[in-house]
Amino acid sequence: MSRILHIEASPRADRSWSSKAARNFLAQLKEQLPKMDVDHFNIWTAILPTFDGAAIDAKYAKLSNTPLTDAQSRAWKLIGHYVARLDAADAILISTPMWNLGVPYRLKHLFDLVTQPGLSFSFNPATGYSPLLRARPTAVLMATSGDFTEGPSYGRPDLATPYLRTALAFIGLKDADIAHVSPTIGLAEAMEAGARRTEGEVRRLAASFAARLA
Hints:
Layout: E1 3-8, H1 17-32, E2 37-42, H2 54-63, H3 70-87, E3 91-97, H4 105-114, E4 121-124, E5 128-131, E6 138-143, H5 160-170, E7 177-181, H6 188-213
């Protein structure tokens, strides 16, 4: 049985465009893989540990091969649970809005927690950084008020897509498929065209995931 981790990064619940697209995607995937298990991780209802104090000291201790204190060990063990949850999934789906050209701060918080030496990446002075997580089907459904599918929207750059693609690849989740759910605001004609494009992207992603997970 395959397990997909759905990281929901919108706090808007049923009003969220990205969450709605994710539900559509998961429903289509479930039709093709009836025994698929969904691990739903809402980062707005979860209590994410702060990354400061003992946690950040533990990271630098790991980087310098210094023994951890008891407090650092406890903080490191807690962070390890989040990396393990990520690594236990056979596929990853992130549904998120774009906020201020980037990602919501809670999603950035999660990336800061799971991007850790010895857990999700390694470093060798001779060879540089290497990811530790195995590649698997990974997709992002990102809702944006403007249409960024052809480039900047009214001069506004999309900083979220390159960040997500790079951050995921850094820990091993390479070649993430990022689909825009857009525009969520604007003229009716443009929004209708965007809805049709989104539906097509959801169908494509569901078929791709099903083929790779079968």
